Amino acid sequence: MSTSPLTPEFVFPSQLERIHESLRMQAVELQAVAGRFADAISGGGLVHVYANGHSRLAVEELCVRMGALTGFHPLLQVGLTTFTDVVGANGIRLNQAIEKVEGLGDKLLDEFDIAEGEPLLAISATGQTAAAVDLALAWRRRFPRNPLVLLCSREQSRRGAPKHSAGRTFWHIFAEGGPTVQLLDNAMPLGDTSVIVSGKTDTYPVCPLSSLGAIAVIQSLNELTLRELDRRGIRHHVLRNMHLGDTRDSYAAWIRDQRRRYARALHRPDTPAASAL
Asked: Alpha carbon of 113 to those of 7, 123, 154, 187, 213: distances in Å?
């Protein structure tokens, strides 16, 4: 089958350099976050990872993927993350309406017993979405001493209008949060799309970068967290590639360690939340 040569205007691959440069500029911050993740994981605890909308892709990359470490705990609520039906009973307009309901952050955190020192990684493409901001604010109220890591577009969360009634975006939470709050940039340009196709029929903005940028940050944290655990002399469970017959760390052992950690998040008798029930 013959293929047409690339047109001279084909520019998207060059946009990936924006992500590469952003990671390089954030190396110190990424290492610091990885250290906090390693603190929780090495003690048998969890790093809780939240997203809504398309940002769920980054959570899946971190929590259940070849090369994934045990100790990352997804907080993915179906109504806030399953947008693929587009129309119908589970259509995107319903999902977007749920995203605007304030108070869901507290309801989600009610389901878990969070240990002292366990971090939350909250992911939002823009840093403006009401549901993500609501969860981050609830976390700060409940666990002010636990690390909070916010992953979003630094530019849009700083310049974009808040959508939450608290008048806050991820940028505000970071700016007001003190040493326990860190913000990582997904390298997304303002508005997300990175390419303008000026054609005969119209001018089209395409090629959003937020998901690719977030996943690049996630995999950087995956590497750096494992390197930090190894530096401390801790051998850790990593999901190996079963398709290539890599059995140095079995799938069953990986699942067993996850089950043990997740069970503590569902019932930890020594937490104030558990004792109040």
From this structure: 54, 21, 30, 33, 31
Q: Which helix (H) or strand (E) holds 63?
A: helix 56-63
User: Domain with 178 in it: what CATH number?
Assistant: 3.40.50.10490
- CB atoms < 10 A from the CB of 117, how many? 14
What is the domain range of residue 198?
Answer: 12-235+244-275
Total domains present in the chain: 1
Quick check: 55 and 226 in contact, CB under 8 A?
Answer: no
Cβ proximity of 79 and 95 under 8 Å: yes
Return the residue matching tokens 């995999």: 219
Mean pLDDT per 10-residue interval, the chain, length 277 residues: 58 93 97 98 95 86 88 83 70 75 90 94 95 96 97 96 96 95 96 89 92 96 98 93 74 90 82 49
Alpha carbon separation from 146 to 34, 111, 119 (Å, rounded) = 15, 17, 6
What span, in angstroms and rounded, lies between the C-alpha atoms of 266 and 277? 13
